[in-house]
């Protein structure tokens, strides 16, 4: 159950959870990240991976809410404020 707290320097990151991991969590930072940067998360039979905002200032698909994946997901920074992510 690994937790990875991303920082503003981690924009355009690739996060991999290997087979046998028991799930994990990625926390998106409350930091201004330039539009177009991505975070790609890959879970190779690693259980459920939770992606959550650091706080209510960070939005995922327009909401300050958590999402999950069991396979993989890419998040793209789209907001002028640098804190708005959409899934691809």
Automatic annotation (TrEMBL):
Domain of life of the organism encoding this protein: Bacteria
Protein name: Sialate O-acetylesterase
